[in-house]
Specification:
Oligomer: single chain
Number of domains: 2
Helix content: 25-40%
Shape: globular
């Protein structure tokens, strides 16, 4: 790693990048390789590769126990899990959902012919703003989907109250929130159902995977049927379905991740504390705090860049970092409402989403996880502080680089 403390040390001015190998946001955690390979050998010896194998069943039991719910249905990925939950819950018409989320949350509704109605988020934890929901409810509204973002829970009690008063179904996209809590209760216990993602970029992964958790036995049975083509036996189909089954090798990885989950959380927390210590006095760059009263997975280190104070925009800082092989990410740019087909279908949605637009221009996710340690974090923070301290010169250089077509990160 190359030290970056002076202006001419920065790669945008021609110096070599700080890191020889790219530092990613969400580089996969692996866990105990030997334990995983032992499980792979066992599943190969059994020749039971899919169709509700022993590892899938074990993973479902352990997830349910960890979360404290009655039912867990393991699914091939989080998006299909959300689609199954939406269909099993009987959502139709219009459903209220934040735009400040990964676009799959919104696609899962559109895939079923449901109209997403975009709601703004709050500035405190970037989750759906319960104070803006009721003005969006009309006779076609059948549900609300809250998204627990960055491992921070939605205002669950307020959402549940609104849903109950208006007789709406409440679901939660909990892709970021496995292992997290709300008011002392583990996320997974709220709404009609909650959906986890175990994608490779999540701190606990099953290569690709997801799960629906619920305390509603009837809903769990519907989802389990739908995930297996609607089969209620070897040759007896009782409902429309799809192929949402998790494979045994994915479950083997999921179990291996689950074994190391507490270690991953410990690393994530240590990384967050290191970032907080090194960026504490950096003008215009603030980290989104976690509520220390709750359990967290600390999976995301989220910086908010105030360009009026920092002297650099979020995208300026992103260009600087990418040139140094620090592949920070601008989640969730530009907001689902500005992606297709939603921008075409709802061209005026931005008028009611000021916080969403502001956050999508200002939020930066920094590398963390087991592939990152104190030395890497020190290097990343040195780059950020150096760039901020020389903001005018950095902006001028980036303008020249952009004119030459040399921007490093994808636009």
């Amino acid at each position: 790693m190359r030290s970056k403390t002076r202006l001419d040390d920065l790669a945008i001015f021609g110096s070599p990048p700080a890191f020889l190998e790219p530092l990613h946001v969400g580089r996969p955690n692996i866990g105990d390789r030997e334990a995983f390979l032992t499980r792979v050998k066992a599943l190969l010896d059994r020749r039971w590769l899919t169709n509700n194998g022993p590892f899938v069943q074990e993973l479902e039991r352990r997830i349910a126990d960890r979360v404290g719910v009655e039912h867990c249905v393991a699914i091939c990925n989080g998006t299909i899990a959300l689609e199954l939950a939406i269909r099993a819950a009987g959502l139709t018409g219009e459903v209220i959902v934040p735009s400040f989320t990964f676009v799959a949350t919104v696609h899962a509704l559109s895939w079923h012919g449901i109209t997403p109605v975009f709601c703004d988020v709050n500035s405190r934890n970037h989750t759906i703003d319960h104070e803006r929901i009721e003005e969006l409810i009309n006779p076609r509204t059948t549900g609300i989907i809250g998204v627990h973002l960055w491992g921070r829970a939605c205002d669950v009690s307020q959402l549940a109250d609104i849903a109950a008063r208006h007789r709406l179904t409440l679901l939660f996209d909990a892709a970021h929130a496995f292992g997290c809590s709300y008011e002392g209760t583990m996320i997974g216990n709220f709404g009609a159902a909650e959906v986890f993602s175990f994608h490779a970029t999540k701190f606990m992964n099953s290569f690709e995977g997801g799960a629906v958790v619920t305390n509603d036995g009837d809903l769990a049975r519907k989802i389990r049927l739908m995930a297996n083509f609607g089969f209620a036996g070897h040759d007896h189909v009782v409902t429309i379905g799809t192929n949402g089954k998790m494979t045994e090798i994915a479950a083997a990885m999921g179990l291996t991740s689950l074994d190391s989950m507490d270690d991953f959380i410990h690393v994530n927390l240590a990384n967050l504390e290191e970032y907080e210590r090194r960026l504490r006095d950096t003008p215009g760059v603030a980290l989104l705090p976690y509520d220390q009263r709750e359990k967290g997975n600390y999976q995301y280190v989220i910086a908010y860049v105030d360009d009026s104070v920092a002297g650099l925009s979020r995208d300026n800082l992103l260009d600087v970092l990418w040139a140094e092989n620090v592949l920070a990410r601008r989640y969730f740019y530009p907001g689902s409402h500005r992606m297709e087909p939603y921008h075409y279908d709802f061209p005026d949605a931005h008028r009611r989403l000021p916080n969403t637009d502001r956050l999508s221009r200002s939020v930066l996710a920094l590398p963390t996880g087991t592939a990152v340690g104190p030395d890497e974090i020190r290097g990343i923070c040195d780059i950020i502080r150096c760039a901020q301290a020389h903001a005018p010169e950095v902006r001028t250089q980036l303008d020249q680089n952009d004119g030459g077509g040399s921007a490093r990160h994808p636009r």
